[in-house]
Amino acid sequence: MKDFLIADMAGGMAASKNRTYRDEVRQSFTVLATFFQANKLTTRSLMESDAIQGDQFKIMRSDLTDEGYEVID
Asked: Model's pTM, two decimal places?
C-alpha cells in the first residue's frame, strides 16, 4: 500500500495569519484526531497531549486503520 497525505494542518494555517482563524484550524484538527483515536481508527497515537502542538500536524494513510480510512474517504 502506498502511503499518502490525508490531512495537513500547515495548509490551513497558511491560509491566514489571523490568530482566531488559526486557533479554529488547530481545534478542528484536535477534534478530528481525538475522534479517530477514541474510536480506535488509528495505527498510532496522533497526539501526545489533549491538544495538537505546533503547526506541522498531518495525518497520513498509514496513520489510519482500514476502517479509519473508510471514514475519511
From this structure: 0.85
C-alpha cell at 42: 488509528
C-alpha cell read off for 70: 473508510
Cα 51 to Cα 1, 35, 54, 58: the distances in Å are: 30, 12, 10, 14
Cα 34 from chain centre: 9
pLDDT averages per 10-residue partition of the chain, 73 residues = 91 92 93 95 88 84 97 93
Query: Among 33, 27, 24, 26, which Cα is nearest to 9's?
Result: 26
Question: What is the C-alpha separation between 72 and 3, in angstroms, rounded?
Answer: 15
Q: Please tell me the distance from the alpha carbon of residue 10 to that of residue 57, in angstroms, as a whole number.
A: 7
Alpha-carbon span 41 to 50, nearest angstrom: 17
* Residue extents of the structural domains in the chain: 5-72
